[in-house]
């Protein structure tokens, strides 16, 4: 994976190559370009708050997915929570996935612009990426997302959607897990959450909320993508508990990363 950024330095627009996760460089950039798995994704990050940043976990997930069987993404039905600039979802759409990008209403125009900008080359995502406004605790928004994806969700993704207060808690921990559960249309729906381990309290809150809905497997962060084993991005694979949905198989589908495969990749 190659990452380039465009940013202003000393009154000039310069292009830099990032050789590791560098949040401050990525956040200071006005454009981010990623080359991975034969695809190029370029996103603009105009200032609309934290939703307009390319966060570390998006790069982490792209690096992980680049190692997998690329052909398995074709036709896979994905929903991304808090898509932001759309980097991760646009990458997966370029691999052939049917993706629904979601975020708050204020971010949708930026998402729309980035989707359009990546829809004109040979790996066009035209017809494979839809935008839907989603407030996680609004039932009407959940219904709109399910309608957009066709009623069946193979995978729910979230990259760095958990923010913490001074006490290390996140007001969104339970909400994001409930949203994942509401979007899980069967036990075969795989939910993958990547986030920076900003506090043990956040980890405990997420695990507690997830235990009510999911069988959860956590994987350690890769030393090649994080400077800290303890506080680097975390990856979870959550599979809907079989008891929640009747008459459904409980195996993880081939396009979803298995707990063991993530642990091997991150070891």
Automatic annotation (TrEMBL):
Pfam families: Methyltransf_16
Protein name: Uncharacterized protein
Lineage summary: Eukaryota, Viridiplantae, Chlorophyta, core chlorophytes, Trebouxiophyceae
Biased composition (Low complexity): 248-261
UniProt-listed InterPro entries: Methyltransf_16, SAM-dependent_MTases_sf
Stretches the record annotates as Disordered: 247-267
Organism annotation: Apatococcus fuscideae
Domain of life according to the entry: Eukaryota
